[in-house]
Amino acid sequence: MSTPPTRRLRVLLAEDHPINRAVVEVVLSQIDVELLAVENGAEAVDAFRESEFDVVLMDLQMPVMDGLTAIREMRAFEEAGVRARTPILAVTANALAEHVAAAREAGADLHIAKPIVAEQLISAICERVSGQD
User: Residue 129: its pLDDT value, please?
Assistant: First the structure.
């Protein structure tokens, strides 16, 4: 596993399923994070615009606004010069090659398939936050 960060990370989680949110919460309790969990893409975009995060974990299939649209909105916000690029990890059950490609096309930095593997998620966060790929 990658070296855990030396400071508390601000993590935005967009996940509509309460059990999946709880799983991520338990996994991230292994490192020092401040977690904000929202239930859909629209809430994620609003939170992203209101506050800075070290990393965003984005489900792709959610009500109100799907994850791909939310990622595009976040990238457009950044490209407007409002802030620097934030790592966005697509964390989703949509694991086919076309889903991975769609997430990358939307602006995701990485695609992580569910079910979540704790070490994989933590390593991915630590690598992206430290600027490694």
Answer: 86
